[in-house]
């Protein structure tokens, strides 16, 4: 009873907390910006000219004008000179480059190569999702002739790895960068829970257009990769404590395999096979939740799929 109450409370908390934190951060940015600029405006403007919100309007206008100026050749050169100066200052260089790279990654003006989502085959059925950031590798001429740079971030953007991978071993995924980034940051929440539902529904609500079939293929691909990634530490914010357990990795592999079956069935547009693969996904998810999340309600008992209690010990 207490586990059920605690589980319900936790699910409510996970729903409310992101909204609360987003609102808090937004209010903090607005009030801090307004508070800093208010002192300046009160000092330099005539009496009674200042009104609440003027600081935010000024900041937004300044950002917009800066964006316009950065499209001009002269301002670009000045900005490049300023950046070159920053990159010669110890510590400031490191912080500036990290922040600049992070925001540049989400910019709508990033180069085409930095906007590609890539899948790397690690062997033994394992795959890794990353982002191609450099296809020329001019800085690594000795090894970069047939390779590309693929950045693989860790959960919650706490770090990542840049891999130099042979072009022949990289598969480009037809997935938006923003969706892929949410995927690698919190695999279980952002990908698996979202991708499984359309596959289950397709068994009795058949897609009618090519666009709907392509979307379903994307969902199956995401679910397959999600099953692979949650078997490794640093990819699923909710499952880091279980990745060292063989039964957890077995469930993850089973989910990836079932998703691969679903993908093949979707490409063949075989509704019966989609239904069979969907049932296997359901059994895998419920069996895993039964084994690792005891307060999660399941629709049935899958004794033949559940690991022994002894296998769950550290």
From TrEMBL:
PROSITE patterns documented for this protein: CYTCII
KW Lyase (keyword) present: no
Listed InterPro entries: COV1-like, Cyt_c/b562, Cyt_c_II
Molecular-function GO term, any one: heme binding
Bilayer-crossing regions: 12-30, 50-70
Domain of life: Eukaryota
GO biological process, one term: electron transport chain
Keyword Transmembrane helix assigned: yes
Key words of the record: Membrane, Transmembrane, Transmembrane helix
Name the record gives this protein: LCV3 protein
Organism: Symbiodinium pilosum
